[in-house]
Amino acid sequence: MEAAGASDETSPFPSSTTSSSISHPTQYPTIDPTTFDLIVCGTGLPESLISAAAAAAAKSVLHLDPNPFYGSHFSSLSPSSLVSFLNSSDDHPSAAPHAVEDSDDHASFYLRRCPVYSQVETSGSFPESSHGFLLDLVGPRVIYCADSMVDLLTRSCASNHVEFKSVDATLMYWEGKLCLVPDSREAIFRDRALSLGEKSQMTKFLRLIQGHIASERSVEEAKEGILRIPAEDLERPFTDFLQNKRLPPKIKTMILYAIILANYDQEDAESPNNLILTKDGIESLALYTNSVSRYDSRLT
């Protein structure tokens, strides 16, 4: 694959990988070498993983980015740079990528990028303190300690190049104030923001989930059909399951959005494809409980 005068500003692939030859205006300098096994445009996590995998397989890679910063939507920007980024996104509305026809000696494919915001309003000025911090484009990227991604990052020695920080606490905005999300049975009973009834209901619910998970992992109990949660309930929306357990709204919201980290409104019946099933909700709860205390008593 040949790249003559390649430039990250003129690449026709806003987030793509290709093994084709890309021609560019003659005013750009020629890249040396001029032949690559793979060309990747965009330095977000998916593109970087593809690029790293190709390099690990002894392939030559040309890695470009149309932005003046690395990381794509996984980057952190100063407030002023963030506004410039948002304005530039408005100037260039999303559209289908320029087509590059496949041939016998090259192939291309497009990585679809999900939008990270729907509508943003920005002011024309910044406080003086705005130079002292950075803003994540998509918010903090949280990984549960027991997630398979952590094992992958450990095996790949990514910790030698990327810094990971434990989450000290999880808070939820509820009725005009931030509430601490308890991460254990002991933390539930220490939490002064929860009423005695809420503590009892949450503890009872977590005990039910833990019993179901334990019974699923036990071969003998599985053969005997001893499951704490009926199979038909596992295929129902998780929000309905929580409602049937008579959990108060605060606990229900805490479980859905602060513990299992639901991405979509689980009360929106008009979007059934976005609703989490009970079996998936229980799996996320199991991941949450397994993450507790794995690394220095942290969840993520």
TrEMBL record:
Region feature Disordered, mapped onto this chain: 1-27
Domain of life: Eukaryota
Start-end of Low complexity biased regions: 7-26
One GO cellular component term: nucleus
A GO biological process held by the record: vesicle-mediated transport
SUPFAM superfamilies, alphabetized: FAD/NAD(P)-binding domain (SSF51905)
Pfam name, any one: GDI
Family: Belongs to the Rab GDI family.
Protein name as catalogued: Uncharacterized protein
Taxon lineage: Eukaryota, Viridiplantae, Streptophyta, Embryophyta, Tracheophyta
